[in-house]
UniProtKB/TrEMBL annotation:
InterPro entries: DNA_brk_join_enz (IPR011010), Integrase-like_cat_sf (IPR013762), Integrase_recombinase_N (IPR010998)
Protein name: Integrase
Keyword DNA-binding applies: yes
Keyword Glycoprotein: no
GO biological process: DNA integration; DNA recombination
Taxonomic source organism: Streptantibioticus cattleyicolor (strain ATCC 35852 / DSM 46488 / JCM 4925 / NBRC 14057 / NRRL 8057)
Keywords linked to the UniProt accession: DNA recombination, DNA-binding
GO molecular function, one term: DNA binding
Length: 428
């Protein structure tokens, strides 16, 4: 049964001050204590409340609830390992935004009002603020699961809307503008980059593969054949099989300190990302030439067969899309012609937006659009609807027409001077 102990301070400046310490029996039979109560009655009442909570199965150890958020966050990161890129993003959010504010805050002291107010002051995009709050909530929920807290004060709460100024509204308008590219621009950037690099741009722009999926394309997964019963026969189509990706991540110690960057092959993020992507005729033809000419197993690799690093790929794509100045020849450097801008801001992500936009433009049916993009179709329709050969052929015809029309508009008949893409085509 809980009781109280009298405590008389001997500390300088507080000598003779009387306080009371609550003593109560913990679940394991040992005696717990909590000091600092002004009266015997308040100490006894607090101890009895602890024992009542223990009997009811809802007791939280006060010592655990006072654990600092930073200490618990590191325990959480060690125990809840995710895919490499997910771990990287979590550590970046913790080190850059969350821990500078909350590292020494006791778990029990964190409130939704304080977190919501803090989030509005973060010097980053609103989506990043949302990710930071979401990660904090995930860590606090884990604290509940580990019996450090009784409830998560952040769970299920909606952040306050950002207050826009004229300047921030204009900036947001620019952020959301033009996140897709004209097919003419995709073709011109691909032409400028050359066969191997340009094929990466074309494939992303017309199929929607992401960066890691492209790097993980092995020769054995390339130009396989889809076969489906159709109209008394068999419908066939060349495909790229996506079931793995290359992740660029950062090795870290237990405290999140960076130890170095690595490239590693991983399974794709979800089961919906495992898919066979149907190739329209022009892309299948280009892939066939690339398959025959490319000497390495990783089909969208660097010129020496290694995986691209994102930063190195950016150094290649940026001038091809954004343009570059002319450079004269000098010692140790060849002359370099000027490149005019084609599609400023083009990225692998914007090319993925482009591919999905093309599918919407040509009316690709929902079950096929979701399948080819590697997404889960929401709702009950995702259970009952499935792609058919007719849907697949309509998509291929539509993408082929987009490409052919863009080639006509550009006055091109070949890419990279290697393949006459007009032979046998309707635009001759």
């Amino acid at each position: 049964m809980a009781y109280a102990e009298k405590r008389v301070s001997q500390a300088k400046g507080k000598k003779g001050k009387v306080t009371w310490r609550a003593r109560y029996k913990r679940p394991d039979g040992t005696w717990g204590s909590e000091p600092g109560f002004p009266t015997k009655t308040t100490a006894e009442n607090w101890g009895e409340e602890q024992e009542a909570a223990i009997r009811a199965g809802r007791w939280i150890d006060p010592e655990l609830s006072r654990k600092h958020f930073g200490v618990w966050a590191k325990e959480f990161m060690k125990a809840r390992q995710k895919r490499s890129r997910t771990n990287d993003k979590r550590w970046d959010l913790l080190n850059e935004y969350i821990l500078p504010k909350w590292q020494h805050a006791p778990l029990i002291s964190i409130t939704w009002f304080d977190v919501d107010s803090w989030a509005q002051t973060l010097p980053c995009e609103d989506v990043t603020r949302g990710h930071a709050v979401s990660l904090m909530s995930t860590i606090m929920t884990a604290a509940v699961d580990a019996q450090h807290l009784l409830v998560n004060p952040l769970a299920g709460r909606r952040r306050s809307k950002e207050v826009l100024t004229l300047a921030s509204a204009e900036a947001k308008r620019e952020e959301t503008a033009e996140k897709w590219h004209r097919p003419e621009d995709v073709i011109l950037v691909a032409e400028r980059l050359g066969p191997a690099r340009g094929l990466m741009v074309l494939t992303a722009g017309f199929t929607g593969i992401n960066w890691g999926e492209g790097q993980g394309l092995h020769r054995s997964k390339t130009l396989l054949i889809r076969r489906e019963p159709y109209d008394g026969g068999v419908w066939t189509c060349p495909v790229l099989r996506i079931d793995q990706e290359v992740a660029e991540s950062t090795l870290r110690d237990e405290d999140g300190k960076k130890l170095g960057d690595v490239l590693a092959l991983e399974p794709v993020k979800t089961k919906y990302r495992i898919r066979d992507i149907d190739l329209p005729p022009f892309l299948a033809l280009l892939w066939r030439y690339h398959y025959d000419d490319w000497p390495f197993d990783w089909m969208l690799s660097t010129a020496n067969g290694k995986w691209w690093r994102r930063s190195n790929w950016g150094k290649v794509l940026r001038p091809a899309a954004d343009g570059r100045p002319e450079l004269d020849r000098c010692q140790g450097r060849s002359a370099r012609p000027k490149w005019e801008p084609i599609a400023p801001g083009m990225t692998m992500r914007s090319l993925r937006h482009t591919a999905d936009t093309y599918q919407e433009q040509i009316g690709v049916k929902a079950p096929l659009a979701y399948e080819q993009a590697g997404h889960k179709q929401p709702g009950i329709k995702g259970v009952y609807q499935h792609p058919t050969p007719e849907m697949r052929q309509e998509r291929l015809d539509g993408l082929q027409e987009i490409f052919e029309r863009a080639m006509r508009n550009l006055g091109l008949r070949t890419l990279w001077g290697r393949v006459d893409l007009r032979k046998g085509s309707p635009w001759r």
